[in-house]
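Researcher: I'm preparing a figure for a lab meeting and need a structural model of a single chain. I don't have an experimental structure, so a prediction will have to do for now. The sequence is pasted below. Please return the structure as tokens so I can convert it later.
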Amino acid sequence: MMKSALFRQSLPHVLIVVLLIGIVVAGSRPDFMGDAAPRVLVSPPCRLDRGPCRATLHTGGWLELTVAPRPVPAGTPFVASLALRDVDVRQVELEFEGADMNMGLFRQVLAPRPTGGFEASVTLPICATGAMRWRTRLVVRAAGETLIASFDLITGEPSHAGG
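Model: Understood. Here is the structure written out token by token.
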């Protein structure tokens, strides 16, 4: 009876220690995605609502982000697709921030497509004034590095893009 009570009292403490050890071991792995050094890709200014946006790598590879439909209606789901060449991709995310108005940060993970590339359905909030200009960051976690490319996107009525 005494051993059982002692076991029940110490079990939560043992589990916490095991969990902390697991976190330390996982975080110290050399291939852990958070350890990849970020590299910002410089690409010509591009608006996703007007057409595909491409960032090229010094190795000759490239990343090309497309949204559909165009123009992108406000508050309606749209599809973001990433095509790529010569990049060993582990994970792809899109981050959206309001360019002229703080709408918070929206992050969307893109899933691998069976035919190649990555894709996700995205819904951004509606701006009270109609159109909204977004800063869109493509974050690609590749083998040994994180690639970042920035593009613009306007949702809603393109006549005014304030937010």
